[in-house]
C-alpha cells in the first residue's frame, strides 16, 4: 500500500535553513545539506528546499546547493523559490532536483504549469498555494502573504490540476507557525476535488496533528519545518506513532 | 569495474550517477556505442515520455545496441518500460526485450491517484537484485504506466492492481521504481547489481 509521506521543509535564506512564525521573525536552524541528510537517515520520505527570499528579491535559486543536496541525499527532493520560467526548471532539474515547486510564477502565468508538465512530466510540477480564510472564502496570497490575489484556493487548485500539476502543496497561512494543527477541512475539500496528491502544510505542532491531517484532512503527505528543525518531533517516533494509529508509513 | 550509464534525452541520469558515487563507483555517462559495448555493466535510466524517447533512441541507433548487449543491464523506470514490447504511452513500439506490453493505470477509486507517486512495498522478489532481502521493503515510485505481471516478473507491487515492479530475463534487469532515490534499500539494490 502506498505510504503517507512525511516531508520536512527547509526554508533557505543565504544558504542557511530558517523558519519563521507566520512568515516573519526568521530564526536560524542549520546547514541545509547536513539537516537534509539527517532527516533522510531518520526516515523522512522527501525533502523540500524553498528559497524563501527569492520571490520578492528576484534572486535566482541556489543551483550549487541543489547539486550538493543531490550528491549527498538518496531520497527525492523538491526545490522552490525563484522559478519564473522553463529554463529555471531545467537548471534545477539538471542540478539534481526531482521536482520543482512553483507558487507566484504559476499565479502570474498559469501557462507555466502546462509548459512544465509538457516538457518534464506532470510529476515534476508541484504547485504551491498559500491561502488565508477571508470573508469571501479561502484566498490565495503571494510573496509570503504580503500580496492578496484575485484567486480562490479551491478554484485555483482545480485549475492547476487540470493544467498538469503533479501535486498541490497547500499552506494555510492562518495555521502556519501557530502549531495547532493543519487546515483539515480545506485539505479534505481539496483532496476530494482533485485527482492529484495533496501535501498538507502549516500548523504541525504535535504528532496527533499529522494523524489528523492524514485521516480528517485526507492528505497524501504532510510537510512541517520547525517541529523537526528544533527537535520537538523526531521522525522515527512520529512514524512509530502513526503506524500505531493505523496509518501506513514507511519504516 | 566499468559501469556505463546510457546518455539520452531523459531526466534523472545524474541522480543515478550521484547514487553510484555514494557507493564509491565512478560511472561513465555516454551514448558512445563502443564504450557502451565495452562496459562491464550498463544502466539504462529514464524519466520522460515513451514515444519521444524511443524515436530518439532509434535516431541514435541505440535501440539495436541496447537489445544486443550481453553484459548485465539495468533499466530504471521509463528504461524498464522501454525494454518491453509496446507502450500505451504514445502508442510506442519499444525494444521488445521483455515480451509484454506496458499499460496505463486505470483507477477505479478516487483515492487511487495517477501518477503512482511515493513509497510503496515490493513483494515476491525473485532476482539477484534483491539478494539479502528478507522482508517487504519500501521503494520510491513515480509512474503512470505499468507492466502487468508476467513470466519475467522479479518483484510485485500492489497499486490499483498487482503489477511488475521489477523484471528479469537473462542479462536484463529492470525496476519500475527508482533505486537511486530509494534511500538505503535502493543502495542495496544498486550494490547487488554492481556485484552481479
Judged by helices, strands and strand pairing, the structural class of chain A is alpha/beta
Q: Class of chain A in CATH?
A: Alpha Beta
Poorly predicted residue ranges of chain B: none
Mean pLDDT of chain A: 90
Quaternary structure? heterodimer
What's the CATH topology name of chain A?
Answer: TIM Barrel
Strand order, main sheet of chain A: write it out.
1-4-5-6-7-10-11-12
What is the structural class of chain B?
alpha/beta
Q: Largest interface, with Cβ-Cβ < 8 Å? A: A-B, 31 and 35 residues
N→C terminal distance of chain A: 13 Å
| Biggest pleated sheet of chain A | 8 strands, parallel, barrel
Number of separate domains of chain A: 1
Q: How many DSSP helices of chain B?
A: 6
Cα(first) to Cα(last) distance of chain B is 11 Å
Tally of individual helices of chain A: 11
Give Rg of chain A in angstroms: 16 Å
Main sheet of chain B?
7 strands, mixed
Tally of strands of chain B:
13
Task: Classify the beta-strand content of chain A into a percent band.
Answer: 25-35%
Bin the helical content of chain A. 25-40%
Q: What do you see in this structure?
A:
Chain A is α/β, with parallel strands linked by helices. Chain A is 37% helix and 27% strand. Chain A has eleven helices and twelve strands. In chain A, helix 1 (32-42) runs parallel beside helix 3. Chain A starts with a strand and ends in a 7-residue tail after the last helix. Chain B is of the alpha/beta class and 196 residues long. Chain B is built from six helices and 13 strands. Chain B has helices spanning 13-22, 33-38, 50-59, 62-68, 78-82, 183-194; strands spanning 3-6, 27-30, 41-44, 73-76, 86-87, 92-93, 101-104, 116-122, 137-143, 145-146, 153-159, 161-169, 172-175. The relative contact order of chain B is 0.17. Classes of the chains: A alpha/beta (251), B alpha/beta (196). Chain A binds chain B through residues 1-3, 5, 40, 45, 70-72, 74-76, 93-94, 96, 98, 120-124, 166-167, 192, 195-197, 218, 220-221, 250, and chain B through 11-12, 14-15, 18-19, 21-22, 47-49, 110-111, 113-121, 138, 140, 142, 158-159, 178, 180-184, 186-187.
Amino acid at each position: 500500500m502506498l505510504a503517507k509521506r512525511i516531508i520536512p521543509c527547509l526554508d533557505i535564506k543565504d544558504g542557511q535553513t530558517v523558519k519563521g512564525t507566520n512568515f516573519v521573525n526568521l530564526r536560524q536552524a542549520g546547514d541545509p545539506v547536513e539537516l537534509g541528510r539527517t532527516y533522510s537517515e531518520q526516515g523522512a520520505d522527501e525533502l523540500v528546499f524553498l528559497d524563501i527570499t527569492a520571490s520578492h528579491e528576484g534572486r535566482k535559486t541556489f543551483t550549487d546547493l541543489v547539486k550538493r543536496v543531490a550528491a549527498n541525499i538518496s531520497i527525492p527532493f523538491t526545490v522552490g523559490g525563484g522559478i519564473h520560467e522553463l529554463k529555471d526548471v531545467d537548471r534545477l532539474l539538471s542540478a539534481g532536483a526531482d521536482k520543482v515547486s512553483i507558487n507566484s510564477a504559476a499565479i502570474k502565468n498559469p501557462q507555466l504549469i502546462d509548459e512544465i508538465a509538457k516538457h518534464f512530466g506532470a510529476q515534476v510540477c508541484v504547485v504551491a498555494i498559500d491561502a488565508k480564510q477571508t470573508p469571501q472564502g479561502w484566498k490565495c496570497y503571494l510573496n509570503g502573504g504580503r500580496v492578496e490575489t484575485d484567486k480562490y484556493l479551491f478554484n485555483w487548485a482545480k485549475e492547476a490540476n487540470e493544467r498538469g500539476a503533479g501535486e498541490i502543496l497547500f499552506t494555510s497561512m492562518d495555521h502556519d507557525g501557530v502549531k495547532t494543527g493543519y487546515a483539515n477541512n480545506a485539505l479534505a475539500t481539496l483532496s476530494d476535488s482533485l485527482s492529484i496528491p495533496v501535501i498538507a502544510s502549516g500548523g504541525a505542532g504535535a504528532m496527533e496533528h499529522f494523524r489528523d491531517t492524514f485521516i480528517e484532512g485526507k492528505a497524501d503527505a504532510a510537510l512541517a519545518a520547525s517541529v523537526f528543525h528544533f527537535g520537538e518531533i523526531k521522525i522515527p517516533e512520529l512514524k512509530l506513532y502513526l503506524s500505531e494509529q493505523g496509518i501506513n508509513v514507511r519504516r | 569495474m566499468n559501469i556505463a550509464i546510457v546518455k539520452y534525452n531523459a531526466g534523472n541520469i545524474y541522480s543515478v550517477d550521484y547514487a553510484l558515487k555514494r557507493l564509491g563507483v565512478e560511472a561513465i555517462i555516454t551514448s558512445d556505442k563502443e564504450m557502451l559495448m565495452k562496459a562491464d555493466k550498463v544502466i539504462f535510466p529514464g524519466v520522460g515520455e515513451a514515444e519521444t524517447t524511443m524515436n530518439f533512441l532509434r535516431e541514435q541507433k541505440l535501440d539495436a545496441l541496447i537489445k544486443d548487449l550481453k553484459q548485465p543491464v539495468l533499466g530504471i523506470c521509463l528504461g524498464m518500460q522501454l525494454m518491453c514490447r509496446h507502450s500505451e504511452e504514445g502508442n510506442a513500439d519499444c525494444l521488445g526485450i521483455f515480451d509484454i506490453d506496458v499499460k496505463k493505470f486505470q483507477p477505479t477509486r478516487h483515492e487511487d491517484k495517477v501518477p503512482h507517486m511515493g513509497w510503496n512495498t515490493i513483494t515476491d522478489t525473485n532476482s539477484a537484485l534483491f539478494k539479502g532481502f528478507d522482508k517487504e521493503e519500501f521503494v520510491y515510485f513515480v509512474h503512470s504506466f505499468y507492466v502487468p505481471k508476467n513470466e519475467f516478473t522479479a518483484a510485485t507491487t500492489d497499486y490499483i492492481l498487482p503489477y511488475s515492479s521489477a523484471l528479469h530475463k537473462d542479462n536484463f534487469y529492470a525496476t519500475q521504481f527508482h533505486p537511486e532515490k530509494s534511500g538505503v534499500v535502493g543502495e542495496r539494490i544498486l550494490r547487488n547489481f554492481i556485484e552481479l
